[in-house]
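Handout, section B. The chain below has 168 residues.
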Amino acid sequence: MNSDAIKTQKEQSREARNAFIFNRVIPGVYFAFITACGLLGGFGIALGRTKKRETSVKLTQQKNATQLFDDGQRLAVRALRRASIYSMTGVFSLAGFLWLISGRPKTFSEFRQWTGSWLPSIKSKRAREEEEGRTEFESLTDLMQYLSDEDQKLKSKKKELTSNIKDN
């Protein structure tokens, strides 16, 4: 009986750990990844916009080199600030918009269920392999036989569907 209590305790701790990972860690990693992508994209856009607006002295003489370096540093800092603002605003507004239209779910699993209902499903590798059919053939005759069999299957399914439609 003591070993049963230990097993159930281990099972409970394992379930609690799995629940923590699926409800806290994975969503956190997901949003961190989205934020990082937004930050990099925002930095690129902000750097381009700031560089277009920035009028700096062209490097024509050696004494202008320090001024050009200072302008570049200032340009990068300004671009980083703008990128941070753009990316955070974009990520938070997208997440907030999705949260609002999903009916304000209380847990991440509810939000995941809602988004999973309208996003296309990603099939497992095994399901894709079963759906694709054979990929290796011994000879050309084997390949041709396989193609004719698959064609017959498709034709029979098509006839079945058309007969079902006519019956209804």
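Note. The mean pLDDT is 76. Compare this with the example in section A.
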